[in-house]
Write a structure and sequence with these properties.
With about 400 residues, the protein is mainly α. It has 17 helices and no strands. The radius of gyration is 20 Å and the shape is globular. The two termini are about 25 Å apart.
Length: about 400
């Protein structure tokens, strides 16, 4: 790809310079509804959902894990469709899955129905997110790709931040909140339908097979190991933090304010591209691994202070969004020939860990207690700094 765009290129994409901002905004919005709302907001409403359905910790872990199982089922499909057909198709399918899944959650009459809605909503980022690596690589200048990707990736923070005030308004009526989330997903999906460019040609199956073989690169192994472990430790915070605060403080309102702080802090992840450009991927990654680990481990230790729990939320919100951006940048540096394949597999491994994390946590909480689970997860996250990202 050359630095200066022309109206078209041999790969079949149009590259009008004026579309970069529209693509960034549309991408940020669909990440907000698929990741920030459809996938991560189950933990925000967990106390009310547990009360209504009478769920045990083991059952909660299995239902939360179904979201990540859904993501795993969809990630390879999204990456394959992006490579074999066009990125636009899986992105739109992801938006529709988010809307349908959240509508099912809003109307669930049983734990089984709830689990199916969580599963379907969980497929949405697996379909919609990996293809954006293809869009970014082929529709933005190389010098801007880190920044554009960081802005799109920060959509998770925007979605989480939006969910908090709506949860305060809805109160105990968690179904109303999920219904509003579903309609937002419908609107954003239509926005992407009219914004995303089409690709004129389709790769043949032999080229796709060659792309899949790139996953065996030796230099990708540290990336894949780190991604899997990061998924396990980070999901403990997403799934159990609000319940931990509610149980230990007895102040549900503070738990929701905590979620708002987490989301608003995550919005700053849009500056991840600037951090990498200034400090390098390797140093930024190592520092953020330690920072996220400290935020996770410190939450139960700071439980007596409102400032302390909000500080933990801010540290995790910033660190998590930036870390996911770093994993994406790391992947795109290795898999330049097939960005959506490598990117999709990296986030597949993150979600494999996130799918196992709630189940593991559900069985460890009765043994270790919630506080010790957070401390252990934080220490494991700090250990991620031992995996060396490219300088």
């Amino acid at each position: 790809m050359t630095k200066h765009f022309t109206s078209s290129s041999r790969d079949g994409y149009d590259r009008p310079p004026g579309k970069a901002r529209n693509l960034t905004a549309a991408g940020l919005a669909i990440v907000a509804v698929t990741y920030g709302l459809a996938r991560y907001c189950f933990g925000l409403f967990l106390p009310e959902i547990r009360l209504e359905f009478g769920l045990s910790t083991e059952t909660v872990g299995l239902i939360a894990g179904s979201s990540y199982v859904g993501y795993l089922a969809a990630t390879f499909l999204g990456a394959w469709l992006s490579t074999a057909v066009e990125p636009r198709l899986p992105i739109l399918l992801g938006g529709m899955a988010a809307a349908a899944g959240m509508m099912i959650i809003a109307s669930a009459a049983s734990p089984l129905g709830l689990a199916f809605g969580v599963f379907l909503a969980g497929t949405s980022p697996g379909l919609a997110y990996p293809p954006f690596s293809d869009v970014i690589v082929r529709h933005t200048e190389p010098v801007r790709q880190n920044s554009v990707y960081a802005w799109i990736n920060s959509g998770t923070g925007f979605g989480v931040a939006l969910a908090g005030p709506l949860a305060l308004y809805a109160g105990a009526d968690w179904r109303l909140a999920w219904l509003v989330f579903a309609w937002l997903a419908v609107i954003v999906t239509f926005w992407n339908m009219f914004t995303l460019p089409r690709r004129r040609n389709v790769r043949d199956t032999r080229e796709t097979a060659v792309s899949l073989r790139l996953l065996t690169y030796d230099k990708a192994r540290p990336l894949f190991c780190a991604a899997l472990l990061f998924g396990v430790v980070s999901v403990i915070y997403w799934t159990y933090a609000v319940e931990l605060l509610t149980d230990l403080t007895g102040r549900p309102r503070d738990a929701i304010l905590f979620w708002i702080v987490l989301g608003m802090a995550g919005v700053t992840g849009c500056f991840a591209g600037g951090l990498v450009n200034r400090w390098g991927l390797g140093r930024t990654y190592a520092a953020l691994a330690v920072a996220v680990g400290a935020a996770i481990a410190s939450l139960p230790l700071l439980i007596g202070s409102r400032f302390g729990i909000f500080l933990s939320a801010a540290g995790f919100g910033i660190g998590f969004i930036v870390m996911t951006a770093l994993f994406g940048m790391w992947s795109m540096r290795i898999f330049r020939e097939a960005p959506s394949i490598g990117f999709g597999f990296t986030f597949f491994l993150i979600s494999l860990g996130q799918g196992a994390g709630p189940v593991i946590g559900g069985y460890l909480i009765p043994v270790l207690g919630q506080s010790m689970l957070f401390v252990a997860a934080g220490l494991l996250c700090c250990a991620l700094a031992l995996f060396r990202a490219p300088a």
